[in-house]
What does this fold into?
Amino acid sequence: MPGAIAQGLIWGIMAIGVYITYKVLDFSDLTVDGTMATGGAVCVMLMLNGTNVWVALLCAVFAGMIAGLMTGLFHTAMGIPPILSGILTQLSLYSINLAIMEFKANQGISVTKYPLIVSQRNVRQMSINNPIFKTLIILAVLIGLLYWFFGTEIGCSLRATGANEAMSRAQGINTSIAKIIGLMIANGIVALSSALLSHYQGFVDVNMGRGAIVIGLAAVIISDVLFGKIFRNFALKLVAVAIGAVIYYIVIQIVLWLGLNTNLLKLLSALIVAVFLAIPYWKAKLDARNTGKGA
Amino acid sequence: MLDLKNICKTFNAKTVNQKVALNGITLHMDDGDFVTVIGGNGAGKSTMLNAIAGVFPVDSGRIIIDGTDVTGLPEHRRASLLGRVFQDPMTGTAATMQIEENLALAARRGEKRTLKIGITREERNVYREKLATLGLGLEDRMTAKVGLLSGGQRQALTLLMATIKKPKLLLLDEHTAALDPHTAAKVLTLSEQIVTENKIMTLMVTHNMRDAIRYGNRLIMMNEGRIILDISGEEKKNLTIEMLMDAFAQASGETFANDRILLS
Ligand SMILES: Nc1ncnc2c1ncn2[C@@H]1O[C@H](COP(=O)(O)OP(=O)(O)OP(=O)(O)O)[C@@H](O)[C@H]1O
Ligand SMILES: [Mg+2]
It folds into this structure.
């Protein structure tokens, strides 16, 4: 169970990135499936080559931001629809990630030789080295920063772009720039999560981001269902998303205990997310039918 | 001052759906002019306003607002010169943001947005006063999401947003058409009040002939992408609906057709 919580928290960071694109910017960004491996690849490879851990982490975030920039340019400068823009970057990232990892599908990094920020080994330890504790601190700082940023003039223009693009342009906002900034921030956050995940598990795998968008959406949806009505404040909403990711991992853990084949996990996740995405649609349809009857 | 010089715009050029929406529009407006615009369905009224705002590029002609040639500028770069209120109350505001946040966005129109806080305490006080002038009680709901407001409240708010930073030109495109008659009248009165108090140059499209005659100092009528009638001063004050209908028939050789036109 502590393992599920630690993993959930790390994926919660990624889910916050998904929340920014999906909810704030209203942009379904599939880049994240690629970025969720890029961050780890950059961080691990740099560390294996002797770079300081914090510098490596910063470079990972930077790499994620470039991925976001790429998707943003596909969309705004080349007129490609959001989903396709993300898919194109995601596909390119597969090659890029392999290239970063010196064309190996995975690269290990040992906690005994390298100063990893978080590690699976310490998950039951009652000390500041516990990955749960450390990830919580990182989450708190991240949420604080985002809360500040989305309250600034630039942050407000990003939120406005997601809420109503035509109105934003009428108010003088360059919505293309706003989307690019949002995508860069979101993918930077996803890359941070990716780097931490590679530390946590002690390796980076080119496939580790596959389906990340679905996990992110699951976390966002769980948070919406459980806390949507009570958490109105932006910072609390982000907290809820992180909790959503933890709940997702706990549920997955339980399902695995109950004997589900690991290979079927992605199918299960996808179906659950599909159903939850459908709920608002079904509800609207049902309401329409009921009012139709009433009239 | 506004100068439209021979503006042409064809949608879907060289296809079967080709549609000449603006066919050589030339219009000069002086500062303080309040021009009402009427015309049948598809006459090109919205297209003219959208062309001024830069929603799409025009095919030919020049658009000069207050001495600045904006013809080639993207929409967001001319926003500082313009205030806009749209027909659909949903279009002018960000539903998921607070009333005060919407105002703060509008107050920064045309300014460089920085990492300074998006809304300051002093601003809030200013907004509270401005909202109070609307007489809708919105000053007590400044942190409410705009999505919770009624259509009329949203249009009033959009109007305030459009003028909170005085624009060189205010564009109103049937901004009361989606409202019930009572609310429409209220928003219209409010519009006139704001326009005359601040002496804002205004182009107002309406499908209500009586409103077109009653408001503003000048009236233009459009048909098939052209301005076919331009009446101002004393002549406008003495206009009647019948005279407008006759003028339309004479200028276009057809009878006036707009399924939403209000003659009353
Ligand atoms: N984006 C567009 N693409 C294609 N055709 C368009 C577009 N916008 C407007 N048109 C066409 O251009 C013509 C003028 O439209 P416009 O919306 O300016 O009319 P209007 O005078 O505002 O009419 P209404 O009173 O119905 O609002 C119409 O034939 C319309 O179908
Ligand atoms: Mg129109």
Observations:
- The interface with chain B takes residues 149, 151-157, 159-160, 163-164, 166-175 of chain A (CB under 8 Å).
- The mean pLDDT of chain A is 94.
